[in-house]
User: What shape does this take?
Amino acid sequence: MKIFGFSNKGGYSGLTVGIECDIRNGFPGFDIVGLPDTGIKESKERVRSAIRNSGFKFPQQRVLISLYPAWENKSGSLLDLGIALSILLASSKVNPKEHSLSIMTAGELTLGGEVVPGPQALGAVSAAEKAGCRLCLVPFRTDNTVAQHITNLRQAYAVCMKALETPLSAMLPAREEEQPVFTDVFGMEEEKEALCLSAAGFHSLFLFGPPGVGKTLLCSRLNLLLPDNDSTTSDEVTRIYGCSGLTVPGSKPQMRKITVDTSAIRFCSSKLPGEGSLAHGGVLMLDEVNKLGPKLTESIKTAYDSGFSGLYPARFLMSANMNVCPCGCLGRPDAVCTCTLHRLESYWKRPGTAFLERFDIRIPVKAFDIMSADPSLAKPDSWYRDRVREASERQKHRYREFDNVNANGQVHLNPSAVRLIAREADMVSRMAGTKSTGQRNLIGTVTLSRTIADMEQSADVKEEHINKALELRRYGFGDYYWKEIR
Assistant: This one.
């Protein structure tokens, strides 16, 4: 059995550290070699106390801990657990060298033997997979199949001993069940279809309508439709959350919510990952997008276009919502809007045309009578998830040679991938005319058409796919919803 630890040294990626223990006769002592910093040297007293207070006997011989690679500087307190386990295994009758099992550890020890998470402990799970470890002992819960949640040294030692004789599959916790998506959403079949298109192609979604029609509810469900992140994105997310000291999200895409009180500094921090990076691989929800400040929207646009927020990856999907008018009555059959035309126009201009153009799907959500919903039209969540997953797999295969691009809606992150949609771009230019003015609008329409074709399992983009894409993208070019219903 090989024991590995995780060091803070190495910045964003961290450093995987091998831990070896040798116990030999001689004057009692405890030494650590391999370029440890002061924090690791101080771990000797923490480890000694934790072992004794956990009911074990600390060796009365000379204990030597070697950290490798020997030429790398090591820092932090996350090696405590690995050092303690190495000593206990070396003191036991079992010879760890006779077993090929490799275990990653990450946790700081209290004097009483409890294991607590430290900075960047979340990155240990990804480091374990890269190092080929079959088990990772961490002091937090995660749905990663490699990780095992432990709370104290005695439990960690028991897991190690059991791993020497029990198949790994018997020790892994059961995976959590998927959260419901549309179980409590009645009717709104067109809106559900739009969410599926958004999730399948990673196209940002903009919903607008009167208050209470379900805009925020639908926006908050978008990440539940997204397929699990691939290993590369999951690794990036794990390291981002590790730098923030937050609980690891695993491979499930996350939802981060931006509201009117979110500042541009909070979105893109110069030191720790901001909200943009925390949404990496998932959804950035913009609630009441027209009320967000100009500095914040500019930061969001920059991160969305580049795929980075500060020093951290930030490839996220946006879901935004807003009311149709300031008074909230426009679009409601039981109310009368009192807003002037000038006030309505100013209200719609707040998000800015350039910002709205980054949303490939822009649709109105109309007032709906729940009692009139037809139960026979309702479909199970599995039906939506399967369609999204199948379309997503086709796109991953299509863009397999391009970095940072896994879906049609991410083509803007790698200009080289645009050549794959050149034929469809010519079709859109001929059909759309002035509506396709500008490269961003053209690429958005083409990629959305491609996603619609993928959802219908069509190898080629057809005219009906382009017409549907143009309809979904129409609002934002000046053809505002309020002009039609007022």
